[in-house]
Amino acid sequence: MDRRAFFGRFGLGLGGAALASLESQESQAAAVGPFAGILNSGHLPAKAKRVIYLFMSGGPSQLETFDYKPELVRRTGEELPDSIRKGQRLTGMSANQANLPMAGSVFGFQQQGRSGAWISELLPWTSRVADDLCIVRSLHTEAINHDPAITFFQTGSQIAGRPSFGSWLSYGLGSANQNLPAFVVLISKDRIDQPLYSRLWGNGFLPSQHQGVVFRGGRDPVLYLKNPAGVSGQSRRKLLDRMAELEFLQYRDLGDPEINARVAQYEMAYRMQTSVPDIMNLSGEPESVFDLYGPEARNPGSFAANCLLARRLAERNVRFIQLYHPGWDQHGGLPNGIRRQCTDVDRASYALITDLKQRGLLDETLIIWGGEFGRTNYSQGKLTKTDYGRDHHPRCFSMWMAGGGVKSGFSYGTTDDFGYNIVENPVHVHDLQATALHQLGISHDRLTFRSQGRDYRLTDVHGRVVRELLA
To answer: Which residues contact 300 (CB under 8 A, 6 or more apart)?
Structure first.
């Protein structure tokens, strides 16, 4: 007999269940509530308890951020050699160009910290925490266009409909806080140059309580959470209790687990009416915190404000916190565009690492920073001394991780002198996903769900744990 059936049969109803859960300690909540995972414990010892995924939507240029290529700078303007391209496909946006002039970065790089990591002058704040970063310069993907590439990183498949990363984690480990979702999504405002579909944080074929919940900046952080005019909290509580009794009867007759999932969603929404206003209220944060994150942290919906919210959610044991910062798709005017984007995220990323570290949370929080692919080493469109653009490039790109049991002050993977191909230690999208799950105590090939006659997993049919990245 499951928990819901027990309370239903003995007349306590979901009202009693909710009261009991609110009075229980959070350490007990993960084991019993409607968001308990299918794993009583992980498959192996966990180094991280949660993930904060800083997704730079649009594809940041590795050549302007973390992959220093002085030879490319010296040969700016020269035609991309056929021996480097090797007949690899291009997108339709640059495939018909008369020539492909190589474009070195106009921005300088310096070695930072004890680790000596090469980091662009565009990221002076991130450079301060170079010794906390695990930089991977050899990511690669099969996807060459935005929608399939983002979907691949977020769900493990280029085809829409699979569960997202956060949904898999919610399904496997459940929630460690009964009053907040296991999976929260935060999207930077004012930078939406391409759509971000809700299926990127959707549950796919997993039960619906595992989908991500979007928190927005402003007066109404979660849509449809407030009671309608004239409906009190007490009335809503009675409505949910009566509805749960009817749903229980339906579940007993039909056995459809989605019935329980729907009731669990109603209950979570009821709890969130109190917990969400509290989490979104930054008035109790000291001035030192706003000094750390910068003035934009006071601007609801900005990347800096979302990073501060991510720290607050991490303190409350939310399992998966997904931040999206769009605007990185610079096919033209790249120098000005990427300067703006880096200004948006640089200080806040540094602040998030520093804040978590000061609070003793970094070691148990895995931070991931990166986009869906990289950018070409040749210019899309006209190349000048001060301006150029870059097309999509899936062959090699850079990301970084921090905390969560990965090596700090470490760089992994090497690309050629032209920044076009990987020459050492390639890391596939599924390898990154497998490694992240491993740090959370999950074997990527054992967390599965049967749908339409086959077992699915986040890493589909392959992927390896990149043990060289682990501390």
So the answer is: 217, 218
In this predicted model, what pLDDT tens digit does every residue of 247-269 receive, in sequence order? 778 877 777 777 777 777 777 77
Least confident of 167-176, 248-257, 438-447: 248-257
In a domain, 177, yes or no: yes
Instruction: Taking residues 227-232, report their average pLDDT.
Output: 79
**Residue 168: which CATH number?**
3.40.720.10
Alpha helices in 205-333 (DSSP H): 233-254, 257-280, 287-293, 303-315
Give a yes or no: residue 408 inside a domain.
yes
Element (H, E) at 27: helix 26-32
Question: For residues 312 and 41, is the Cβ–Cβ distance under 8 A?
Answer: no
6 found inside a domain? no
Q: What CA–CA distance (Å, rounded) separates 131 from 114?
A: 7
> Could you report the per-residue pLDDT of 144-160, keeping only the tens digit for each?
999 999 999 999 999 99
- Alpha-carbon distance of 96 to 186, in angstroms, equals 38
**181 token code pair:** 């979702």
Question: Is the residue at 253 inside a domain?
Answer: no
Range of the domain at 82: 35-230+288-469
Question: For the chain, what is the domain count?
Answer: 1
Q: Which amino acid is at 418?
A: F
Sequence-ordered alpha helix ranges (H) in 129-228: 146-155, 165-173
16 φ/ψ angles, rounded to the nearest 5 degrees: -65, -40
Of 424, 443, 422, nearest in space to 433 by CA: 443
Q: Which residues of 437-460 are buried (b: 16+ CB within 10 A; e: fewer)?
A: bbbbbbebbebebeeeeeebbbbb
User: What three-state secondary structure class fits 54?
Assistant: strand
What is the torsional sign of CA 7, 8, 9, 12?
positive
Among 341, 337, 233, 351, smallest CA distance to 292 is for 351
- The band of 238, judged by pLDDT with boundaries at 50, 70 and 90, is confident
Q: What is the mean pLDDT of residues 425-441?
A: 98
